């Protein structure tokens, strides 16, 4: 099957001169990747599944004992873990919705003939090129209640963005929105520029309003690519660690990956943290599956 | 001829260079510690050892929040990157039971270190389990939580008069927790961007817990019975409830945004004219008497953690002991280094460089006590310190305490009694899990 879809080797190429067949070249490219995946992804995944049923602690020389489903049972009965999941869900919703609104909005603004469009687009992409840790550190300064520029500009006095337990999660989400809206913008822009111009011309001839044009032409045609952006951003937001860890230590911002990190590398409860990692993995898979099904439906339309 | 000579010299040079590097490789020691001023002082100290013995010693550091994770990752991997570690006092149970530390009991007894070092440092930095006579570390950097304050604010006649009129007694170094609270309230003036007090609130490691311990211990409370692991009725005792309420009240007199503060922020409270008083480890006080790092150096004073309502006076212990790592390839060389480190002359030099020696003789000497404005408070504190649990599961206990106490202190959730009752239940469950109690 794979050989059937491959193009034949150029007889003048260097590889052909060395006497390599198409199959050899395919293997040269594919086998290292598969080995890499097995060693660094599949093997640890299966190995940690085994650990999740034990009381293993990497910090102790004691042998691991099989405890069955105890880790899963205790984790799912732990109110702190459920509160971590609730915080994560809230964060994902606020952050992804914010990114889609801002990113898609900016893409709509940029999808027209304006001067310096290329330069503007490049500048808008800068935030997502920065490192998460650096973004976290300088937003911490921007949010500072005593000398931060945000309070100064908005005239908020000494409003506590990060120390206020009710506000801290939104503050982290705002930073994430600032950083990743350009990603949604980029994909939306690609989708928008692919919408055939004649559809808009036809709508104009039919005197369709801008509201109608947007919901009946623009949105349905951009939806598949926007869905891909949403899938990526949801998965990333679900795994958020750096920003929340650096910006604040409020219990109201302890997303599930921070709890997992503490369990694995501060408490050294290796077996239990493997179980928690599996619960998170299953959740991400389930959410992604729902999205992918919806994406296929959108594509079919 | 000239060419031959040059090549011969180059050859000899090369041989010598190779020889030296092989020699140096055999005689190198690495000590792992957190990134802070005392680690720099230790590097200066070990440079003297290199000059004496020819053994190069490097102090490798990592930021505080990563210190525990990085050290235990290396231990668990049985890595030989470090020969010695200046590890936190509460690690001793986890590191000794897992076999990461070399047993130093014979070394300890041979040099009679139980007498040479201050008693609290032997008890909390070196011995595990409690009263077992087994030693795993040599007390290296003594430390405890103390206080700094703005002498100029305290000595301002107008302030003194207003304080006396309001509270009926003289403004001065707080004699007890009640006075600490009153002074914090008195100087708390958000309109003037001046605040009462700076305390520890960071819940990512042990900062908040150390701060709360300061109140608990001085109010006459305990965290639990370290021998029997009994916590119910101890951690949620009447005194502890009052102590937690007092700490929460202090939080209301802190500068804005004070919900994730540790040693950097607490020193900034003094250097940036934010607070009248600030809690911090003694190890961070050298920066406060240095004009270059504190424009208010002249006007900064220090005091020991004040007594509680019943006159008990204790403080939370910081500090570390130096241990030899079981996976080091240079254990013999490391032991030789420790022999040099415990000498009285070395300890004197260590104190002069800015390290907080644990040597009882040096601590008691007037020379040491008069060397800085805070050494006397340090000396007094080191004989009345208490520490957190040192059991191998201390990290779980620490996180549980943070989870329960933090929302109460910074977020007004629940009452002190509810918080400590829940904490007692959490700790009890943890001790049951590890078969410490039935």
UniProtKB/TrEMBL annotation, chain A:
<dbReference type="Pfam" id="PF00528">
    <property type="entry name" value="BPD_transp_1"/>
</dbReference>
<keyword id="KW-0813">Transport</keyword>
<feature type="transmembrane region" description="Helical">
    <location>
        <begin position="91"/>
        <end position="111"/>
    </location>
</feature>
<feature type="transmembrane region" description="Helical">
    <location>
        <begin position="167"/>
        <end position="192"/>
    </location>
</feature>
<feature type="domain" description="ABC transmembrane type-1">
    <location>
        <begin position="85"/>
        <end position="291"/>
    </location>
</feature>
<feature type="transmembrane region" description="Helical">
    <location>
        <begin position="118"/>
        <end position="139"/>
    </location>
</feature>
<comment type="similarity">
    <text>Belongs to the binding-protein-dependent transport system permease family.</text>
</comment>
<protein>
    <submittedName>
        <fullName>Sugar ABC transporter permease</fullName>
    </submittedName>
</protein>
<keyword id="KW-1003">Cell membrane</keyword>
<dbReference type="InterPro" id="IPR000515">
    <property type="entry name" value="MetI-like"/>
</dbReference>
<feature type="transmembrane region" description="Helical">
    <location>
        <begin position="275"/>
        <end position="292"/>
    </location>
</feature>
<dbReference type="GO" id="GO:0055085">
    <property type="term" value="P:transmembrane transport"/>
</dbReference>
<keyword id="KW-0812">Transmembrane</keyword>
<keyword id="KW-1133">Transmembrane helix</keyword>
<keyword id="KW-0472">Membrane</keyword>
<feature type="transmembrane region" description="Helical">
    <location>
        <begin position="213"/>
        <end position="232"/>
    </location>
</feature>
<feature type="transmembrane region" description="Helical">
    <location>
        <begin position="28"/>
        <end position="47"/>
    </location>
</feature>
<dbReference type="GO" id="GO:0005886">
    <property type="term" value="C:plasma membrane"/>
</dbReference>
<dbReference type="InterPro" id="IPR035906">
    <property type="entry name" value="MetI-like_sf"/>
</dbReference>
